[in-house]
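Researcher: Next entry: Flavin-dependent monooxygenase (Actinoplanes flavus).
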Amino acid sequence: MEAVLAGVRELLPVLREHAQDTEDRRALDPETVKALAETGFFRLLQPARFGGHEAHPLDFLTGVREIASACGSTGWVASVIGVHNWQLALFPDRAQQDVWGADTGTRMSSSYAPTGTITRVDGGYRVDGRWSFSSGCDHATWVLLGGIIPPGEDGTPADFRTFLLPATDYTIEDVWHTVGLRGTGSNDIVVSGAFVPEHRTLSFNDTARCVCPGQEQNPGPLYRIPYASIFSYAITTPIIGMATGAYRAHVDHTRGRVRASYVGVKAAEDPHSQVRVAEAAGDIDSAWFALQANMRELMDLATAGAKLPMPLRLRVRRDQVRGTELSIRAVDRLFENSGGRALAIGTPIQRFWRDAHSGRVHAINDPERALSMFGRGEFGLPLNDAMV
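Model: Predicted structure:
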């Protein structure tokens, strides 16, 4: 996968240069998406039988971190769009053929909060409603939407599923006016009476059990790890990348800065500035090293055909929310230490600060939920959350 990552790194100066333009347009430039696609980045988690790389998740996450370190919005969209190829590989084969049969470069956006209405009908479901925060939806021709199937009259229990819809079944409403991650184009998806056949749905219960229909055609270890592990790290990694970008921007900024409150003293010579930089670097490294260790262990076990123990899965979620917290703490330290000139529109430090805090409010980053699950596991209490 080195060729893909090398291609991504070649794009970083351009992404960095265009970061303000991306923010101003409130969406990625189509040329940026095209350039990322040409590196092979979006195919990293895609099944080999559809022209993908079936790469180790760390190759994908490393690319995400690099992209987000240049432009937070681009890193966020690249991550969430890229991880959808992994999820589609878990769907029934017929759904995979629907999306990739004619074009293996087809992209999907998503919105998983079950805010719409799902009605059982013959052969599938009727879908209605509005879903928000579908990052990168302007660059996708399919969407993954979360929804709850109500209990059936025959006693069939309710189920939380992902529903796969083509662009002909929905409209996009431009509502994305925000203080951060402005370039992600995370607009609303509106659906009115669309029919979704049974084969274009996937139960979260199946993803939690790591037993999904698509594994019959995609039996590799990549597709036998928990959805909650892959998806949660696809959200935290861009934030680690933003903290990395903020760190690099802050160091460059501070090297030439003179502190106004200490006449003639260079900020880089201030021991307090040095301590803050060391603390921020330590937090970023801690977040990234834990992520790497956990993902390696998951993949090693999956490759060996071993069961993925619940303590490991709980640790993944614990370290995921802690990774976000550590990254936010690092960005805050760096921003506080950057002086008034860092407030100017167009400077990378304030943009990374806003983008990172905007990513923090994603539901998967709620620390209480993940940490409570970890604590329940440690105390031997029952767990009934699919996001582990």
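Model: Note for the record: The chain has three domains: 2-105, 108-206, 225-378.
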